[in-house]
Amino acid sequence: MPASASRRPSSPATSRLSIGQVLEILRDEFPDLAHSKLHYLESEGLITPERTPSGYRKYSRDDVDRLRFVLRAQRDRFWPLKVIKEHLLEHGVDSEVTSIASRPGPSATLQAVRLDRRGLAREAGVEEEFLAELEQFGMLPEGDLFYGATELEIVTAARDLADEGLHPRHLVMLRTAAEREAHMIRSVARPRSRSGDSAARGEAEDFARDLGESMISLHGAMLRTKLREG
Q1: In sequence order, which ranges of the chain are alpha helices (DSSP H)?
Q2: Residue 76 within a domain
Q3: Which end of the chain is less enclosed by CB atoms within 10 A, N or C?
Q4: Which residues contact 203 (CB under 8 A, 6 or more apart)?
Q5: Alpha carbon distance 26, 50 (integer Å)
């Protein structure tokens, strides 16, 4: 059964969107979404945009709904593409991602947010001076105009640790460890990305993401073990 079979039929009069317009529509919820990711999902049969006689991709509103479902299922439920595809073939996009029995993951509760500096401080319950301290020790990027769910999670966790006496200056080793782990993951994922091949770059991005989640899970499990030993 083709991957497109579960999609609702589109009216011939329905306007088609360029890849740039699709990225713009989804940018607020998925700020890191890139052309390569869409090409990769297409190569895996998750979306099937139409092609113009000149070869340009054109996306329907149904394609956008399907993309949003796939991206949410990956981000919020940590389902591999094979499982997402099977679910779409059986149920389409009319079911909520949250109704899928999920494999638990450390980022499963993150929701899409877009905050300016003052909003980030307000949502995390800290003063802006605390954000400056996090920037000083490399926990937050400097100069960003807007922040997402990951930055909010960092500030909130750092606030909780600071309340117990572990201030940002004490957490530099965590930042250094994260940098080393990211370098390790990129070095493993890089060979999967062939120069000039958008689908391969998208595959490498997904592969790196999955490795990162596995490493986070391993780190958490090892930390719990060491705390029990103490």
Answers
A1: 19-26, 35-43, 61-77, 81-91, 117-124, 128-136, 149-163, 172-189, 198-229
A2: yes
A3: C
A4: 40, 43, 192, 193
A5: 19
* Cβ 215 vs Cβ 185: under 8 Å: yes
Q: Are 18 and 95 part of one and the same domain?
A: yes
Of the listed ranges 114-118, 128-132, 164-168, the least confidently predicted one is 114-118
From 212, 202, 189, 213, select the one nearest 47 (Cα to Cα): 202
Whole-model pTM: value is 0.55
Mean pLDDT, rounded, for 13-18 = 74
Q: Which of 49, 78, 99 is the last residue in one of the domains?
A: 99
What residue numbers bound the domain in which 203 lies?
168-230
| Within a domain: 1 | no
The answer to whether residue 3 sits within a structural domain is no
